[in-house]
Design a protein that fits this description.
It is a single chain. The protein is an alpha+beta fold. Helix content is 27%, strand content 31%. It has a domain at 33-81. The protein contains two helices and four strands. A four-stranded antiparallel beta sheet has the order 1-2-3-4, with no helix packed on it.
Length: 81
């Protein structure tokens, strides 16, 4: 009986994990939020698809960095195609 319960619990856990691995319907139809415009060795320049505000994303010694790029007057840089 104990063995049956353990096997049933394991089967339920496996079934739930397999069901959760797929892409949801909401994610499947969405466009990418950020568009990459430059890729360097340790950083990338991206812009937000809707607002066109530009960001730099990179890796540093202590973690990841995601920072808005600004113009000399302090306003956010906007991507112009």
């Amino acid at each position: 009986m104990k063995r049956f319960l353990i096997c049933a619990l394991a089967a339920a856990v496996i079934a739930v994990s397999l069901a959760c691995c797929g892409v949801s319907e909401a994610e499947a139809g969405q466009e990418e939020m950020f568009v990459e415009v430059y890729e360097g060795r340790s950083y990338s320049v991206v812009y937000h698809a809707e607002t066109k505000v530009m960001y730099v994303a990179g890796e540093v010694k202590y973690g990841d960095v995601f920072t808005v790029l600004v113009n000399p007057d302090g306003t956010p840089m906007v991507w112009r195609e």
